Amino acid sequence: MDLKTIKKLFCFALLSLRFASLSPIDLGAPIVFAAETGPDAQANPPFYLAIVIDDLGNNAKGTEEMLKLPLPITGAVMPHLPSSVKDAADFHGAGKGVILHMPMQSDTGKQAWIGKNPITTDLSPEQVRERVNAALDELVYAEGMNNHMGSTITQNEPIMEQIMDVLKERGLIMLDSRTTPKSKVGDAARKKNAKYLTRDIFLDGTQDGNEIEKNLRKAANIAKKKGYAIAIGHVGPWGGVVTAEAIRGLASALQEEGIQFVTLKDLYAALNDQKPSPKRKK
Ligand SMILES: [Zn+2]
């Protein structure tokens, strides 16, 4: 036998072994071999992971650490606070995404946490518009908005429709932080045909690094199942430095598994085929 024939026989034997180890049901389905984890894996579409970091704008602990992450994360900046403009400019300057983190009335959270010029149920539709526009005028780099707290407001469909009108006029994306399972943000966005995404998982709310790593893994698993995931973390006491460390520590491993970090804006574009690459159908 020449070398070619020996090689062929060897490959055939290997294939037979693989087939022998599969159940008859497995044989009925299209079979993909080692390419799943080998270099050919690059040919598969990536699994997008958009990490949004809430509560920027108040010189919060962990802001620098988030800014230094070598990843296209998105900063959600609260308006009218001491470092609002600086944090938004710094994130934008570092090639990261920026969205407005709009303070909104909540059923449960302390009033002291709500921030400046929040959206509350006692406002007129014109006041709602004014407050959202004023916040967006301050944060000129904002590519979208999500809600800070807001369990009361996001259940209020008329107010969410007023907010959606402003976002639509300005071409911006609404990310529902989903601080309540009763949120009407999706309904309002669909009614107004506005750009809309929703959070899949919160990363922190704790100072326990192991817990945050677990949540990052969960986020990656969601992305692998549905093609993308949106995870929200925080600066300040609900995460901050420890969240930044967890993201930094796991980023390379997740990228090797096919996770591609993207800003919220790029995720929206990819899901809606607004640019040639990266591309992925819904
Ligand atoms: Zn917040």
Question: Gist?
Answer:
This protein is of the alpha/beta class and 282 residues long.
What percent strand? 15-25%
Strand tally? 9
Q: Determine the fraction of residues in helical runs and give it as a percent range.
A: 40-55%
**How many helical elements?**
10
Radius of gyration: 23 Å
CATH topology label of the largest domain: TIM Barrel
- Structural category: alpha/beta
Q: Give me the strand/helix succession.
A: HHEHEHEHEHEHEEHEHEH
Q: Into how many domains do the coordinates divide?
A: 2
The CATH architecture of the largest domain can be named as: Alpha-Beta Barrel
Write down the CATH class of the largest domain. Alpha Beta
Distance between the termini: 52 Å
Q: Globular, elongated, flat, extended or rod-shaped: what is the shape?
A: globular
What is the residue-mean pLDDT, rounded to a whole number? 86
Hetero compounds? zinc ion
The parts where pLDDT drops under 50 for at least 5 residues are 3-42, 276-282
Q: How does the major sheet shape up?
A: 9 strands, parallel
CATH level-4 homologous superfamily of the largest domain: Glycoside hydrolase/deacetylase
